[in-house]
Design a protein that fits this description.
- The chain is mainly alpha-helical.
- The protein has a domain of 71 residues.
- It has 2 helices and no strands.
- Helix 1 packs antiparallel against helix 2.
- The radius of gyration is 20 Å and the shape is elongated.
Amino acid sequence: MADPLGLIGGAGQVNPFPGPGGARPRAEDASGGTFKDALTRNLDEVNQAQQEATRAVEDMMTGNRGDLESVILATRKADDAFRMLQALRNRVMEAYDEVKQMRV
């Protein structure tokens, strides 16, 4: 993902959060990682679930796998993970739109 303003990695010249020492506050979750790290981790997990589902369907079609239940379970797991990721994206976009409408 491109970061034209340099705000995501903290490497940019623009400091939108001036404060004592010019330090940017960090949004951290309970485990000590940033939101960006958590989102990247979840994207990787959804991608892995999609790949496992694709592999399971391919194995079923080629005859390497005989249990239909595990194929259905893998595809359902990947579908649920993707739907949850879409819901998260929609909520983030709604929040962004709301912030855009704020008057400063």
